[in-house]
Each structure stands twice: as structure tokens, then as C-alpha cells.
Amino acid sequence: MLKDIFWLVATSLRTTFRKRSNLILYLGLPLAGILFSLFIYSGNGQGGLRVGVVNEDGSEIAANTVSFLQSLDKVKVEDVTEEQMKKQLAAGKLDSGLVLQKGYSDSVLAGEPGHIVIQSLKGAQVTAYMKAMLYNYIDNLVAVGKISTGDSSKFKQLYEDYQGQDFHLTTGTVTDTSVMVAMSSQSIGFLIMFMMMSAVNLSELILKGREDRTYFRVMSSPITPRTYVISNIIVNFIVMLVQIGFTVICIRYVFKFDTGIPLLQLVGLLALFALISVGISLSIVAFSKSSGMSWGFAKSYCNPNLSACRLLLPDRYYAIVLTAYR
Question: Residues 245, 29: contact at Cβ < 8 Å?
Fold first, then answer.
């Protein structure tokens, strides 16, 4: 039995990889998934945050607020009108817009900040850094305003004392690996999809063997149906292990992505999923009468599930789709 299994496995692998198109299918598509992830995330985390500021208040407090934004790292401030801000936000020339409406300074002096509008078409993720720093600065202004009890001259004196405090802050720089981890996760998501498709494609060899009568010629020999199916499972698993090894090597050593988990753990998890993929593919083939039917079952099962698990695209694209159909 073992000899028959070894012969069937060797024959299936030799027949499968004889065609160059199969090499592209099993190895080229996972590589294409990595390149597609690079394309999706290209430019992420690079450059600064472009902020358009509309200063309708025109007071010293508002000017100080704008100067504070200009002093922030990774923030590029542009003075614009409200109409220009809307056009540039729509055109993607600005990431966010800040409007300091009339009454902003009075609200700060009164200890109840208001008349501040922050606009962005890219969601809260883009403006989170600016909001955190700006709101912390405004909270300090509000504290000064409460102490000055609305007296502008007293506020100015307290603000100058606050700005002239003699203390030192030690800072350190850390590397932002979030984009690398996201690209790695996306690449693995595409790998999982191609593993599912490959498993179904290899399991279809049983159906194709029946269609071209090869299966019945093999069954006329001493080889049993159980041996034939076991050999197909082994071929499936070997091909997916090759896919896993090739993709993980490209992710870690060629493109140098950070996977977020140790390499052996990642390979172990993907190998476990490979076994699950083989089981699902055999179940699909068992309920199919032809190779075309099994491929239809596979697409109707795999694509919705992979999309629901958010493996194919970054979260922001799913948010856009859900917003469009809300």
C-alpha cells in the first residue's frame, strides 16, 4: 500500500508541475498577493499630515493655537480659506482641515472651549495624532483661562509664564511597524485564499480522473480507492507546504515584513490551515458531480468567508463599502 501511495504521489506531482502554468498558479499567485499588498499600502506612514487651517477668529489665542500646530512633528500646516479647504480635502491635497471660528478665543477665556471644527475625508485614524495634541494644548489654555477669570491681560501674563517654564523633556524615537505588520497580514490573507483554491484544484484531479476515465483504469489495478484518495491528500499537503515555505521566505527575507509572531509559529498555523483546506476541498469534491460544479462550490464558499474575515483588503476599504451600502 505504501509503495502504491508513493508511486501515485510521485506521478501526480510530476504531472502537475510538468506544466509551467501550474507553477505560476501555485507559486506565482502568492507572490502576486504580496506585491498587491505592497501596492495597497504604498505611501502609508510616509510624509507628514497635511492640515489646512481656517483662522476666522484672528485673535492672539487663535494665532498661538496655529503656531502650536506648526511646531508639531509630522504636521504641515497651510493657511487656507474655508472654500479652499473643502476643495483641497476633496482633491486629496489635504488630509485634514481645522476651522477656528469666531468666538474661539472668548470660549477659551471663559473656560469652555468651543467653535472648533475638524474636518477629514479619511476618517478618525488620520486625525487622531493631531486631535490628541491639539486637545491637550487647548485643555492647558482652558486651565489658564479659568485662573484668569476672563481677564485677557492676566491670561496673557499667565500664558507667557506657562510658555516660559524651564523644564526639559527627554524624547525617544521608536519605529512604527504597523504598516509592515498590516502588509504581512494582508499577504498571508491572500496566501490563505490561494491555498484554498489550490486545494480544491488538486482535489478536482479525482473528478477529472473520472471524467477522462483515468480513475477507472487506475481502479482496475490493485490500487484501492482509499489509496487513491490518501495519495491525493498527501499531494495536496505537499503543494501547500511548498506554497507556505515560498511565501513566508518572501515575506520575511525578501520583502522583510514584520509578521508579528515567530516564524515557526506562523508556519505551524498555516500548516494546520493547510490540513483544514484539504478537508474542505475533499468535502466539496465529494458533493460535486463535475469539476465545474466543484469550482463553483469553492468560489461560493471561499470568497464570502475570506471577505467576512477581512483577509483580502485593508479595513478602510471594507468601511467604504459598508458606508456606500448603508
Answer: no
Full set of structural domains in the chain with CATH: 2-41+177-324 (no CATH), 49-163 (3.40.1710.10)
For CA atoms 214, 220, 224, 227, the dihedral sign is negative
Residue 315 has, within 13 A of its CA and on its CB side, a CA count of: 6
* Strand 116-119 to 75-79 pairing: unpaired
Q: pTM of the entire structure?
A: 0.58
Tens-digit pLDDT string for the chain (326 aa)? 678 788 888 887 887 778 777 777 778 878 887 787 777 766 555 456 788 889 888 888 888 888 888 887 778 888 888 888 888 888 778 888 888 888 888 888 777 888 888 887 766 666 777 777 788 888 888 887 777 776 777 777 777 776 666 656 666 666 666 667 777 777 777 777 777 777 777 777 777 666 666 666 666 677 777 887 888 888 888 888 888 888 888 888 888 877 778 888 888 888 888 888 888 888 887 777 776 777 777 777 776 766 666 666 666 665 555 555 55
| Contact residues for 299 (Cβ-Cβ < 8 A; gap 6+) | none
The per-residue DSSP string of 211-272 comes to HTTHHHHHHTTT--HHHHHHHHHHHHHHHHHHHHHHHHHIIIIIS----SS-HHHHHHHHHH
Place of cell 483662522: 55
Hey, is 37 helix, strand or coil?
helix
Q: Fill in the amino acid letter for 126.
A: V
Looking at residue 247, its amino acid is: T
Of the candidates 43, 6, 8, the one whose C-alpha atom is nearest the C-alpha of residue 202 is 8
H helix count then E strand count, the chain:
14, 4
C-alpha 9: how far from chain center: 37
